[in-house]
Amino acid sequence: MSHPVTLIPGDGIGPEVSNAARRAVDATGVKIDWQITELNSNLILKTGDSLPKSVVDSLERTHVGLKGPVTTPIAGGFSSVNVALRKRLDLYANVRPVHSLPGLATRFQDVKIDMVIVRENTEDLYSGLEHEVVKDVVTGLKVITRAASIRIAEYAFRFAVSAGRKKITAIHKANIMKLADGLFLRCCREVAACYPQIQYHELIVDNAAMQLVVRPETFDILLLPNLYGDIVSDLAAGLVGGLGIVPGANIGDQDAVFEAVHGSAPDIAGKGIANPTAMMMSAVLMLIHLKEHEAAKHLQSAIESVYNAKKHLTCDVGGNASTEVFTDAVIAALGH
Ligand code: ATP
To answer: Whose CA is nearest to atom 12 of ligand 1?
Structure first.
């Protein structure tokens, strides 16, 4: 049986890293019917449609996507298609496992880091509701609802139980945003009370940022509203070797889209030097979602063996291999 999967190469380094991930998945022997769907800033500018129907149609057919990054213009231009897609398909849980890779030299290489970031994916300051009240005075709406907060907290606790994890830390700024973050926190506490077997802690986001750097090994699952989740994800990526290696999953009740934490990295696009690890490990999460557990384990071990050997690493993690050479090494390690 072949699994239908929507493959969105994206733009910037997206096509390079998604092609690498596709080659690696194909090399596991799992049969995927890749349905390639264009989604990039040129197409959006040409059609004026920030979320083309073809993308949504394909994902509504396949229910599973592997997605490269798509550029979001800064301070103006079209709104983020990544955010639009998550909202359109109600992919409410953004799950990002962050762990050290064997053999990879980082500033924290002596510390065993193994945490999972669970980020609410549909609201908060990502509501896109900004308004210029009068010239030079702008407000932006932070939307926090009980429904979305309960839903993400329940997801995190269910995930903790199924993954055999022990502790959840809810991260907030409820000392300042007493209503908005206060509601998020009340929902987390309410759900935590139903899971006495999971330790529940809370940290104010600024303190959490420091604790993550000072004692990252003490974190297990982090549960955050959307914006803190975005920022803390990049911080956590920095602890284990950078954005090139941290994967992610956007999960809804019907659909799931797998994508790296990193963006389109225009500074290195087209140079053939992007690290495809994050995209490949997002594909590992996809294989688990497709219940192809053996292939997922096999691909994860192949990636880890290339890191252990240290010979074919890309420049962001201290090597000088191209995207293609790294990918060839992973495929060789798969032994197909
Ligand atoms: P966005 O806001 O779109 O999520 P970002 O803030 O995460 O983007 P990126 O576009 O991911 O930013 O890039 C941040 C830095 O990390 C850049 O210098 C980029 O070159 C580097 N980087 C990101 N992804 C990779 C990768 N896969 N391989 C190597 N370097 C990367």
So the answer is: 263
- What is residue 173's predicted lDDT score, i.e. its pLDDT? 98
In angstroms, rounded to a whole number, what is the distance separating the alpha carbons of residues 239 and 108?
Answer: 6
Does 80 sit in the ligand 1 pocket, CB within 6 Å? no
In short, whether 20's Cβ falls inside 6 Å of ligand 1 is no
**What are residue 120's DSSP bridge partners?**
93
pLDDT at residue 267 above 70? yes
Mean pLDDT taken over the chain: 96
Place of tokens 């990193």: 262
Give the residue among 265, 269, 285, 254 at the shortest CA–CA distance from 98: 285
Ligand 1 atom closest to the Cα of residue 274 is 28
Atom of ligand 1 nearest to the CA of 279: 27
Q: What is the pLDDT of residue 80?
A: 85
Question: Smallest Cα–Cα separation from 165: which of 117, 188, 198?
Answer: 198
Residue 221 · residue 167 · CB < 8 Å: yes
Model confidence, pTM: 0.95
Spatial CB neighbours of 216, under 8 Å, sequence gap ≥ 6: 108, 111, 113, 115, 236, 239
Nearest CA to ligand 1 atom 6: 263
Which one, of 333, 329, 293, 291, lies nearest residue 312 by Cα?
329
CA distance 42 to 39: 8
Give burial (CB, 10 Å; 0-12/13-18/19+) of 254: exposed
CA distance 133 to 218: 44
SS3 117: strand
Residue nearest ligand 1's atom 8 by CA = 263
CB distance 74 to ligand 1 below 6 Å: no
Q: Is 71 exposed, middle or buried (0-12, 13-18, 19+ CB in 10 A)?
A: buried
pLDDT digits (tens, 9 = 90+) for 149-195: 999 999 999 999 999 999 999 999 999 999 999 999 999 999 999 99
> How far is residue 291 CA from its own chain's centroid?
19
